[in-house]
């Protein structure tokens, strides 16, 4: 909007006015840029050293003091910008120049640069507002729709990150609170401590948001309504207050007030233990070797307990007086240090850790206490160590016992079989074959064979999940059978549940020529040979994936071999076979009559192709019920006559 009309100003006077306006603009930009750079430099400083005259040591200036100074300088930038803008507006008003005319170019350039700077500073926020996700901006999605699935992998990974942050606080807060020298800036790790403190605090704050947006199951359905989820989170007041208290910045407030740091004020970060338990319990359910994971957790607990007890010992030594007697920490209970080596921070911590290890393990090869308070501390520490290690040893023992339970049960079965063989005076050759078979079963982890196949292991699962597991394991194997290649998936799903695993030893006959066929076999692993009756001549070798005996399951009328085996089959080595019994097949076919007719028709085609079918035979063999029905009809006709 123009302040005054410019028609009364001669055209020749506009050039110097524009030049002066441009000079004001450049001065404005230059001053603002200088002060902004100075503020950014102060904010981004990693640490500022300040000498302490009382101790002649150098400490880190509290980080909030630096940030406050930077913010103050940034406010000065805004004040300077406003003052120069007012001066420029007054200049234009004095000479009656429109800000959109003679000074319009300069003003537009200033506004354009300011807009570009604001755009760069707020780029992340603008991206959240402008980018769409299913028709909704990401910012609106986060505010009103974002819900976390507690069963998703990303949620489990987030729990792992929170657990790492908690372990950092658990180990470092007590260490930095007790060993004061760790706060000296000359100590190498102080910069890393400050950085990790900020990172873990950010993780805690983000976890509060994650917990308030974590869905829950209602009647088996994941609730994704933001209001319901947050309302449920507020109802659980204990967890909500734990989250809030754990995020209270007592240490930062202390730094602002007293201009110094105190790690003791970070102990409130340790109350979020339930998130760690949730992560460890979930991990125990997911890992393939839970016993090994439990042993790892127990070892980690031992190290943490020894660490805390070491810090407690050094703290008590400081309270009672360093180097006041042999029991507390001091030169008296240290071994003679080589010349030139000082009593460093690492040595003080390692000695405290060594003392803690001896006390909690009840070795007690430490200096005897002298004061009454020292005796009390030692007694409490010893009792605490006894309870801890009794619990640990008990847990480790139960883990080892559970891991060896399968082995003990297996060995008990072997002992029972051996006892039976001795009582029946079985020859040594057969006993050796049985022992070899047991050894192969154990080495190949086929314990389920002795437990009534896999049914006992999977019996706790619902039938639908059992079928899916069986389909995943056996479906492709069953598809290889030419008799079942065109069967519908429902029938195959029934049949895969019927497959059983059997293991044959070297030299065992799976079947002999002339035996009644009641099973179909699929070679999973190993090698079989089709041999003559005496076993001397080898006709054919069956490898992995081969199928035999399937036609004997169908009772096809006109088969020249009937239900008898047409050849003898012998195992070359240890062979794993999937077995489908005839009774199981016919039980499944009761619900699939069309599939039954299709299988019989396909079986007849296979026999006809191989020249093993009598074509004059009926297409379908009559069942006993059909024979009884025809017999009754004939009797009724005779009686009527």
From TrEMBL:
Membrane spanning residue stretches: 154-175, 187-206, 295-316, 375-401
Chain intervals for the UniProt region annotation (Disordered): 1-20
Short name of any one Pfam family annotated for the protein: cNMP_binding
Localization per record: Membrane
PROSITE patterns for the chain: CNMP_BINDING_1 (PS00888), CNMP_BINDING_2 (PS00889), CNMP_BINDING_3 (PS50042)
Membrane topology, record value: Multi-pass membrane protein
Cyclic nucleotide-binding domain mapped to chain residues: 483-597
Protein name: Cyclic nucleotide-binding domain-containing protein
Primary localization: membrane
Gene3D superfamilies linked: 1.10.287.70, Helix hairpin bin, Jelly Rolls
SUPFAM superfamilies given in the database record: cAMP-binding domain-like, Voltage-gated potassium channels
Keyword field: Ion channel, Ion transport, Ligand-gated ion channel, Membrane, Transmembrane, Transmembrane helix, Transport
InterPro entries (UniProt xref): CNG_cation_channel, cNMP-bd_CS, cNMP-bd_dom, cNMP-bd_dom_sf, RmlC-like_jellyroll
Naturally occurring in which organism (per UniProt): Meloidogyne incognita (Southern root-knot nematode worm)
GO cellular component terms, semicolon-separated: intracellular cyclic nucleotide activated cation channel complex; plasma membrane
Gene Ontology MF: a single term: cGMP binding
Top-level taxon in the UniProt lineage: Eukaryota
Keyword Nucleotidyltransferase: no
Source taxonomy: Eukaryota, Metazoa, Ecdysozoa, Nematoda, Chromadorea
